[in-house]
From TrEMBL:
Pfam families: Ribophorin_II_C. It is a multi-pass membrane protein. The keyword Endoplasmic reticulum applies. This is Ribophorin II C-terminal domain-containing protein.
Length: 322
């Protein structure tokens, strides 16, 4: 029966292998027509008409110009403190209004190549986008910078292999102070950052530790802590304590172990005071405590049994005497 079962399994495996080999050419044949399919046409990104408006510090419109990309809508337009420029446009993807992944307004300094301030355009209803850039935003990004800034529009989207970059015109900022007191522009772009732009080291300042007490004071308190033990020894000596009544036999053995556990606990407390920490002391204390409790119980039980046996022997002796 085992041989028949093995032959049946071997036949099934051969059938499965032949079925897989027969299916492979079909997959290859079905994939060939897909390779001959025409490639998908790439999308084209563009911009509709552009409107540029200059606003005063109080929010009133000063001028508005409309035109196409790469037209000089602003020709070195002076931008005083508090003023800002608002650019409105409609991005197009294959001729239809769209929302590109990146749409921003850039103001590049002509005096400092690579130094540029940016403003992200926000989408509005109807597909239009608005980007505003003022003197406050430029100063926040570039510092107190004067001179002419080239204004351009930047668009990008994964659906379009080519982005859009076109000029709108230029702005003219008031010149900053000159001389040694003139504030330097903030060089935030990658072209001006040093290669090893390390962060400054942080120097931690710790509180000065409090003055400790003299060693004599510590020794005096140590003596006061040990004084009760010395008083106990003196009191036991005054009572006339001796080892003549120490139990013998099994009870004596358990009593020795019990007193050894107590001595080990005292030694553990001394080590905890000198060098050990609480995490390492607690497990040892629990183990020694359990050992001491067990040996103490055994010592008391053995001592009670020993006394009961002695009392029984004494009672039998009294009966015989009577």
């Amino acid at each position: 029966m085992r041989k028949i079962s093995c032959l049946i399994c071997l036949g099934l495996l051969l059938c499965i292998a032949q079925a897989q080999d027969a299916a492979e050419p079909e997959v290859q044949a079905s994939s060939e027509p897909a390779a001959d399919s025409p490639p998908k046409k790439a999308s084209v990104l563009g911009v509709d008409s552009i409107s540029v408006t200059v606003y005063a510090a109080d929010g009133k419109k000063e001028s508005t110009k409309k035109g196409k990309l790469d037209e000089a809508l602003l020709k070195a337009t002076a931008l005083r403190s508090g003023q800002y420029v608002e650019v409105s446009f409609t991005p197009l993807l294959d001729g239809a209004p769209a929302k590109p992944q990146q749409a921003m307004l850039a103001a590049a300094s002509k005096a400092y190549p690579g130094l540029t301030a940016y403003a992200v355009a926000k989408a509005q209803k109807g597909g239009s986008h608005v980007a505003s850039l003022g003197t406050a935003a430029i100063e926040k990004q570039l510092g107190s910078l004067g001179g002419e800034l080239a204004l351009s529009l930047l668009l990008g989207d994964p659906a379009a292999p080519l982005g859009v970059s076109g000029s709108i015109g230029s702005l003219l900022l008031p010149e900053a102070a000159t001389g040694s007191a003139a504030p330097k522009p903030k060089l935030l772009t990658a072209g001006h950052q040093p290669v090893n732009n390390f962060k400054p080291n942080i120097a931690h300042i710790f509180r000065t530790p409090d003055k400790r007490a003299p060693a004599v004071v510590s020794l005096a308190f140590t003596g006061l802590a040990l004084a009760p033990l010395a008083l106990l020894v003196l009191y036991l000596g005054a009572l006339g304590v001796n080892f003549a009544g120490f139990p013998s036999g099994t009870a004596g053995l358990w009593a020795l172990l019990f007193h050894g556990g107590i001595a080990a606990l005292l030694g553990l407390y001394a080590l905890f005071w000198l060098r050990l920490d609480l995490a390492s002391t607690l497990p040892a204390a629990l183990g020694l405590g359990a050992f001491t409790a067990l040996t103490g119980y055994k010592a008391l039980s053995a001592l009670s049994a020993q006394r009961a046996a002695e009392a029984k022997v004494a009672a039998v002796a009294v009966k015989k005497a009577n």
